[in-house]
Specification:
The protein is of the alpha+beta class and 240 residues long. The protein has one domain (4-185): 2-Layer Sandwich (Alpha-Beta Plaits). The chain is 50% helix and 20% strand. It is built from 10 helices and 9 strands. The strands form 3 sheets. The protein has a 5-stranded mixed sheet with strand order 4-5-3-6-9, sandwiched between helices. Strands 1-2 form a two-stranded antiparallel ribbon. Strands 7-8 form a two-stranded antiparallel sheet. Helix 7 (187-197) crosses helix 9 and helix 8 (202-209) crosses helix 9 (213-222).
Length: 240
């Protein structure tokens, strides 16, 4: 059963249907200098615009809050993992704070951003007014901020949440493996993965990044693109 309510501008306001929300917090952004934080904010706004264009047919909505916190909504859960990994690889590819050596900046370079993806209902989703409310946004937002007694859980930076046990059993381990994998990728590898997730060919990526196509292929291979692509395809096939 679906219940739809529309505003005067035809934005979807009330929905009884599973959607996906993504909450994301840039790691250690407060340790950056003012110049780097401004660059970061500008870059995040650019990637949100890119996502809006790529996933326009999925009614994608994204916003940046206070310069370092991102919230996104997707109509179709199928593309949610791809969006989360686009954000992850993009932030890790940024060449900012390169001269900073303190521990927190090193954490930013290693992890980039903490992302929680949640599948659930939204009771209110009004793009025009910027109102998001319901189970999904509660689950993703709480996962970003919660602290647990397990140090291992607190270090997770790619999190899946759903009240559906089938979803949890299927995807939580995949997200943990991807989290571990992305922490080991270099900035250059993440840059290549970012463009691949957007559907660009290696020839196009070589032109964008000003690299030889052979170098793009090598970075893609050493980054384990095949495994990332397999995980995204498995998620698309099995999510409901």
């Amino acid at each position: 059963m679906r219940l739809y309510c529309f505003s005067k501008t035809n934005y979807l306001c009330c929905v009884k249907k599973n959607k996906v929300t993504i909450s994301a917090d840039i790691i250690s952004s407060t340790a950056m200098n003012v110049e780097d934080r401004l660059i970061l904010e500008k870059k995040i706004l650019e990637v949100i615009k890119t996502l809006e264009e790529k996933f326009h047919s999925e009614n994608f909505y994204g916003r940046l809050i206070k310069g370092d916190y991102i919230e996104c909504v997707l109509e179709n859960p199928q593309h949610a993992l791809k969006v989360a990994l686009i954000l992850k690889s993009f932030v890790k590819s940024l060449d900012i704070a390169e001269n900073e050596k303190n521990t927190k900046i090193q954490e930013f370079k290693k992890y980039g951003v903490k992302i929680a993806l949640a599948v659930g209902e939204l009771s209110i989703f009004d793009k025009e007014k910027g109102i998001i409310d319901g189970e999904a946004i509660y689950l993703s937002g709480r996962s970003i901020n919660e602290k647990t007694s397990s140090n291992k859980e607190n270090k997770k930076t790619l999190i899946f949440r759903s009240s559906n046990e089938k979803h949890k059993n299927c995807f939580e381990s995949i997200f943990s493996l991807l989290d571990f994998h992305f922490a080991k990728l270099t900035r250059t590898q993440c840059e290549i993965i970012y463009h691949k997730l957007l559907g660009k060919s290696e020839k196009e990526i070589a032109e964008i990044t000003n690299k030889f196509q052979s170098a793009v292929n090598r970075a893609s291979t050493t980054a384990g693109w095949w495994a990332i692509d397999d995980a995204v395809r498995a998620f698309e096939k099995n999510i409901e």
